[in-house]
Amino acid sequence: MAKGKTIRVYPDGGVWVVKKDSAVKASAIRDTKAEALDEAKKIARNQGLSVIIHGSDGRIQRTVRPGDHGTDDCFITTACVQYHGLTDDCKELTLLRAYRDNHLASTPTGLELINEYYERAPLLVQQLNQRVDRKTLYDELFERIRAACKLIECGHPERATVEYKNAVVWLHSLVG
Questions:
Q1: pLDDT tens, residue by residue, 74-91
Q2: Which residues form the domain of 80?
Q3: How far apart (Å, rounded) are the C-alpha atoms in residues 153 and 96?
Q4: Are 89 and 151 within one domain?
């Protein structure tokens, strides 16, 4: 990746920094990774940059390229909330993105889940959208997503992970 064509999100002490590779100063400093990532994506979209996302250990977790900014997130949840007429910053997407970036991405097992999800989810959404019964499936899927969100809000992250994984497995069993 060419220098100056990327912006990074990385930890620095108790904050998260958003900084272009070619810059001397940070573009933004935020309290959480999710907030920093949102800011980096806005800058990247406006300037055609790639976003390099680091984990809390400083290692690179993933790269989001300019054309990916609308689809790098929760594919299944994004499709589901869009189907139900909600926006990209709705409670469910915001909560699950923060959970992914701040909880799942902080462990090797969580990173494996994220990578596996990114490999499988786009095809599942594509197959779901081709179904004649997609309204029923989206309704059921949304209830499962909301259940996972409720578990996150109640402080049960591991149970939320199981709930979301079960929703993906359920969807895969029907459309995959």
A1: 678 878 888 888 877 788
A2: 75-175
A3: 10
A4: yes
